[in-house]
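Session log. Operator J.P. requested a structure for one protein chain; no other inputs attached. Running the standard single-chain path with token output.
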Amino acid sequence: MAEEDPFLWLEDVTGEAALDWVRLRNAETLEEMTGSESFERFHTEIRQVLDADDRIAYIRRRGEYFYNFWQDAKNPRGLWRRTTLESYREDRPNWDVLLDVDALAEAEGENWVWQGASVLRPGYRRGLIELSRGGADATVVREFDLDQREFVEDGFRLPEAKSRVGWINENLIYVGTDFGEGSLTTSGYPRVIKEWRRGTPLAKATMVYEGKPEHVTAFGFHDSTPGFERDFVGSSPDFYRVEKYLRTQDGLVHLDVPEDAQTSVHREWLLIRTRSPWTVSERDYDAGTLLAARFDDYLAGSRELTVLFEPDARTSLLDYDWTRHHLLLTTLSDVRTELHVLTPAEGWRREPMPAGPELGIAQILDTDPDESDEYLLSTSGFTEPPTLKYGHVGGAVEVLKQSPERFDAEGMTVDQYFATSLDGTAIPYFVVRPKAAGGPTMLTGYGGFEVSRLPDYSGVLGRGWLARGGTYVLANIRGGGEYGPSWHTTAMKENRHLVYEDFAAVARDLVDRGITTREKLGTHGGSNGGLLMGVMLTRYPELFGAIVCQVPLLDMRRYHLLLAGASWMAEYGDPDDPAQWEYIGEYSPYQNVHSGRDYPPTLFMTSTRDDRVHPGHARKMVAKMREQGYGVRYHENIEGGHGAAADNEQLARKWALLFEFLWSQLKY
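Structure written below.
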């Protein structure tokens, strides 16, 4: 029987007693950390980076226009706007503002935060806009007329919920939302999907699919590609498995692929990316393989598959994007991006594409799969500011925008090393060093959900850390996707300890190579990376001089009962199962923090409005550590959602607190 938790009351997110505790902790931390000249300098310089007018305004094509969402000092909540390619090429594009979120928030007396828009193809005249209060995952949905630049008075509207919506046609949408009792999964996401016709009450929407209560979420979407119109529905039994069905006049047709495979359909083609080994038609395919088949033939029973990408020990598939006639592959080779063009003719011809810097990244940001072979490409590196390029497959590549340097990188070096983990696995990590060595080192990582951490540019990191003489380290530990699905799956559930052993191995390797010392080594991470920080604090405290733990999971005994936590049991395991709790309990930070230990100084940061990872994790950990006599710091943003910041001011304060804490704690 688990011991009674004396700090359970701190899980009452907006309870007055809990918020009083939060306000008191915030006041203590802010009084200690925000009065210095260095904090003000951090804050000012970070705001300059975040609000800079010469930032690249990243765009996405929808029809004849390119769209952008922009935030700065004058528009902290942001502008949704669009322009033409011709105008975007100019130094000062002529932006057509569709929605001013600041003006909307003021007019309605709401703390609106932009969460995106789904725009109806092919005319792009109507959008379903999602807005959240304070940055939460839960949103309200409103139909918007892009020509009139106003919300549709009697249009589609949904109250606040973790909804899923998508256009079928101008008068019909898919909707999954909180329809009442039994309509949500145990993870808090839609369990049922309905068709909702314009002009009818939501209560009259027609059921088209039901997932199971224990599933993570259900979905429905329409492919409006001319000549290839299709509708799909389905649900996710867990975070990594999907049951997908094609809707036909005769009913639902199951897409017969492994549940953990990722699938997509483009015109006549079905793409299948495996997450585990798959044997079909007496042929074996490794995890991380990308396969192509003709969609109609596959549904009819054919299993004629073409291998488009096959992983090896060093190389994995990061992403793929369709243009009208080509498939663009982004691969990683020892965490270095490469681009390739595949053409579905003449046996899927494959050719290389120009990429980015050697120790940097190249990312396809947008394509036009309906009409053309254009693409938008972003390249950057730790010390190389982003460049936005525009091109057509097989044609010239044009530089559209170049970001200025945000910090002086002259003399800085970027290197990649490999640490040896406890089981002998080589773990890659990047080291960015200033010209004058000797300052503190900041190590970060993530290690979960097959998320790859890549060597990209950060003006905030450059200003707040590198330009001041700090060394930055990015660890590509297991649990991520840097070497494909197996890099992740080998570190799930009972093998979760590998994530933490990898990170500890990198920390030790930094000291062994003479790059830093324990006293000068700080570390930070958020969300699943916050759990990583909690484990470093409780299991490897001797390795670090200071730790910043952000929006973390920490109480792994109850994580599945809090907000979206149930959806992550495929990653961590079920703590209600005694056999699984045995290995979860070995590392769960909240259960493994004890008095009388030599823990490094630690700052916990979270957000009241985070409705994904419950703020109770950080609250309870801090309360327990304070009771045990540790002088731990805590700051909780009352807004911010899972990102812990709703606008640039809040984001600047969050980063300034992090830098101020690490610089003040690490001995150098």
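Operator note: The first helix runs from residue 16 to 33.
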